[in-house]
Amino acid sequence: MTSQVYDTCTKCQYEFTGLPERGKCPECGNYYDKSTGKGVGSEYRSKAQKFDRFMVRLRTIFLASIAVIILLIGMIISMNSDAAGIPIFVSGLIAFVFILAAILSYLNEKP
Ligand SMILES: [Zn+2]
């Protein structure tokens, strides 16, 4: 990602670009320290983190949906098949792999 991150005042969102490492916000006088992150926030950064979490959640939902779809396809095929057990068994196996992937994805959602 090439997104630019700005340090901003946590009180008034004033941009600290070009200001010393620590001091007082020129806008509201709030004390800040860039090295410790005290009084320093970043709208942009938190938005990016939210987006990342959303993408990871989407991956989990996507994997789980694929598992359900494969199971449904297996059931539909078995309805039109003479050997009803085989498509369900095969789709169940494939769906199981996707369910495992979804569970792993879910467990990895938290950093
Ligand atoms: Zn401020």
Ordered list of secondary-structure elements with their pairings:
Layout lengths: L7 E2 L12 E3 L6 E3 L6 E2 L1 H37 L5 H23 L4
Antiparallel strand pairs: 1-4, 2-3
Helix pairs in contact: 1-2
Bound molecules: zinc ion.
Zinc ion binds next to loops.
What is this entry, summarized?
The protein is built from two helices and four strands. By secondary structure, the chain is mostly helical. The protein folds into two domains: 41 residues; 58 residues.
Description:
This protein has 111 residues and is mainly alpha-helical. It has helices at 43-79, 85-107, and strands at 8-9, 22-24, 31-33, 40-41. It folds into 2 domains: 1-41; 50-107. The strands form 2 sheets. Strands 1-4 form a two-stranded antiparallel ribbon. A two-stranded antiparallel sheet has the order 2-3. Strand 2 (22-24) and strand 3 form a beta hairpin. The protein is rod-shaped and about 80 Å long. Bound molecules: zinc ion (ZN). Zinc ion binds next to loops.
Low-confidence stretches: none
**Helix content percent band:** 40-55%
- Can you give the mean pLDDT? 86
Strand content: 5-15%
- Output the strand order for the largest sheet: 1-4
The number of domains: 2
The best one-word shape is rod-shaped
Structural class: mainly alpha
**Chemical compounds bound to the protein:** zinc ion
Radius of gyration in whole Å, from Cα? Answer: 25 Å
Number of strands: 4
| Biggest beta sheet summary | 2 strands, antiparallel
Question: What is the ordering of alpha helices and beta strands?
Answer: EEEEHH
- In quaternary terms, these chains amount to single chain
End-to-end CA span:
18 Å
Helix run count: 2
